Amino acid sequence: MKKYFIALATLLTVSGSLCLAQTTQPAIIEDFKPSTLNQPGQEYPKVNSQGYARFMVAAPKAQSIKVSLGLGGRGGTTLVKDTGAYWSGTTEGPLDKGFHYYHLTIDGGVFNDPGAMNYYGSVRWESGIEIPAPDQDFYALKDVPHGNVQQILFPSKSTGTSRRAFVYTPPSYYKDQAKKYPVLYLQHGWGEDETAWANQGRANLIMDNLIAEGKIKPFIIVMTYGMTNDIKFGSLGRVDFTTPFQTVLVNELIPYVDTNFRTLSDQPHRAMAGLSMGGMETKIITMANLDKFAYIGLLSGGTFSMDDVNKTPGFKEKVKLAFVSFGSRELGNPRGGFGGGDPKENAEALKKAGINSVFYVSPETAHEFLSWRRSLHEMAPLLFKD
Amino acid sequence: MKKYFIALATLLTVSGSLCLAQTTQPAIIEDFKPSTLNQPGQEYPKVNSQGYARFMVAAPKAQSIKVSLGLGGRGGTTLVKDTGAYWSGTTEGPLDKGFHYYHLTIDGGVFNDPGAMNYYGSVRWESGIEIPAPDQDFYALKDVPHGNVQQILFPSKSTGTSRRAFVYTPPSYYKDQAKKYPVLYLQHGWGEDETAWANQGRANLIMDNLIAEGKIKPFIIVMTYGMTNDIKFGSLGRVDFTTPFQTVLVNELIPYVDTNFRTLSDQPHRAMAGLSMGGMETKIITMANLDKFAYIGLLSGGTFSMDDVNKTPGFKEKVKLAFVSFGSRELGNPRGGFGGGDPKENAEALKKAGINSVFYVSPETAHEFLSWRRSLHEMAPLLFKD
Question: Which of A242, A275, B105, B111 could share a disulfide with B66, CB 3.0–4.6 Å?
Answer without folding.
Answer: B105
